[in-house]
Amino acid sequence: RAKLAPHVPQKSLWIGGIGELHPNKNWSAAIIAMSTLSPKNHLLIIGEGEEKLKLEELIAQHNLSEQVHLLGYINAAQYLKAFDIFILPSKKEGLPYVLLEAGLAGVATIASDLPGNHDIIESGQSGLLVKPTPQLISTSLEILLRDEGMRRNLGSNLKQNTETNFSLEKMCQQTFDLYQSRTLSD
Questions:
Q1: Domain tally, the chain
Q2: Taking a C-beta distance cutoff of 8 angstroms, is the pair 122, 146 a contact?
Q3: 107: buried, middle or exposed (CB in 10 Å: 19+, 13-18, 0-12)?
Q4: Does residue 25 sit within a domain?
Q5: pLDDT in tens, 125-159
Q6: pLDDT tens across 37-49, in order?
Q7: What CATH number is associated with residue 99?
Q8: Which residue in 26, 39, 77, 171 is deepest, having the highest Cβ count within 10 Å?
């Protein structure tokens, strides 16, 4: 961790997010949620985009410059295992590949309650799915920040689910089966 983000206290809990800084990604809700949490917790957002200045202003407005870190575009893979909690507060998603990456890293995850996210996360079993409002994100974060055992279990279950249901072999077989069923029905 010290090499990844030397400016972030190493013994603090790291909440991480990866994605474009765009209104659809709803990073503002996660930032506002951080304003209700203990300053010993840190939000690290990896990504660039059109909303960067707006998010920097929001961080300053809520006096969170020591707690919320916009890291820009960097190699995110090395950060996933360093995160204690992964967050994806999007307003819209298809099948977000970043949730699969968080799953493979075994990170406890909070994501928006959206159809594509349901394909990856079973809420309460392999992550938490919430309406992406600052209040509900904050409440979910508080639950996971307090309960290390729950974080471990959710992360482990998400990893197992991702490896079982989204492996290369499984995805290839499902694609093959789909094409075969379409060919046979024609």
A1: 1
A2: no
A3: buried
A4: yes
A5: 999 999 999 999 999 999 999 999 999 999 999 99
A6: 999 999 999 999 9
A7: 3.40.50.2000
A8: 26
**What is the identity of the amino acid at 118?**
H
On whether residue 2 sits in a domain, the answer given is no
**pTM for the whole thing?**
0.90
**What whole-number distance in Å separates Cα of residue 82 and Cα of residue 128?**
19
pLDDT (average), residues 27-35: 98
Residue 181 lies in a domain: yes
Residue 115 belongs to some domain of the structure: yes
Q: Is 12 exposed, middle or buried (0-12, 13-18, 19+ CB in 10 A)?
A: middle
Model confidence at 55, in pLDDT bands (50, 70, 90)? very high
